[in-house]
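Single Protein Entry

Contents — chain, fold
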Amino acid sequence: MLHTSDWHLGRSFHRISLLDAQRDFLDHLLATVEEERVDAVLVAGDVYDRAVPPLAAVELFDHALHRLAELRVPTVMISGNHDSARRLGVGSGLMRHAGIHLRTDPEGCGTPVVLTDEHGDVACYGLPYLEPALARAALGAHEGGHTAVLGAAMERVREDLAARSGTTRSVVLAHAFVHGGESSDSERDITVGGVSAVPASVFEGVDYAALGHLHGCQTINERVRYSGSPLAYSFSESGHRKSMWLVDLDAGGGVSARRLECPVPRPLARIRGTLEQLLEGPELARHEQAWVEATLTDPVRPHGAMATLAARFPHIVSIVFDPGVRDGGGEQVSYARRLRGRSDQQIAEDFVGHVRTGREADELEREMLGEALEAARVEEAQEGDSQPGAPGAARMRPVKAGAEAAG
């Protein structure tokens, strides 16, 4: 099985189109399918970068599906939190006759795509991204939160698997943030109620879990892995090795995996220093053809810094000005460092304390902020699966009611 995810078709990099790089990746994927004699392709969500993708991205996706169908390689694909599940799932009933299996409906979590090899059946279950507020009722979860809804989906998987032959092997595709995974700046926050990560133990009972959402290729344990995105979508991914997993299941469900590198359109580099240091430092010569993010530490913002740096780094795309501020102990601490690792909820609470000169958000205000952030996420998910212009104001009413009660 070839495990990939997070294509984000249609996404740009600092206003630079990545469509050609994404086309090169898909050509690489198709060549790998042929060269490695792949039996099945697994795509663990975030096929597109947004709910309504540009036409060029849709055409690229359509081309890839036609090529996979021509190669007669079964493909199992789920929707991620960037996709519109309903739009991605259009035509899925017809596509399955060509071996393309789209899994976008939470209620279908317990219905696998059954693949067969010389050792017997492999039940492949597709769990699309499960927004807790929207999927809880459909899955009959006893409570909200990512762990509860994903756990309810996995219960359906285990029930179906228990009714099959004891020799049936099993694979799950899921789009989630699992404990132990390392995130980057490119993934959209899926925190709900302050908790987004789920334990890897939720996938117990299956032979392999093919995960999407985190953009770094990583191994949670032997049976639970992220393929990561095939391209870097932010400078926080500059240290990633972009790749896919080629996974073998033996007759008893044992897993072996080999990492296959993806083509790199242009390397990424983060450089830091004063303008003079960046222009003259000989150690930076290796980054002159990279996409560059330069952090300038000059105490006064230099005039025309982007044009000046472009003379040496023609592919510079971002400049950050970070002279730093001093903390109570006199150490310089940048704004980015102060925010690093903090959730949206924590940042919002910090802002309340800042504008009120040290009076932090109280318990009721923290609850209201959490409700507002969750409502915004739910509204975005619902709008992605509705027609443009669909009314959404009613979804904010619980937050408004809370504000009136506080007043």
User: Anything to note?
Assistant: The chain has a mean pLDDT of 88.
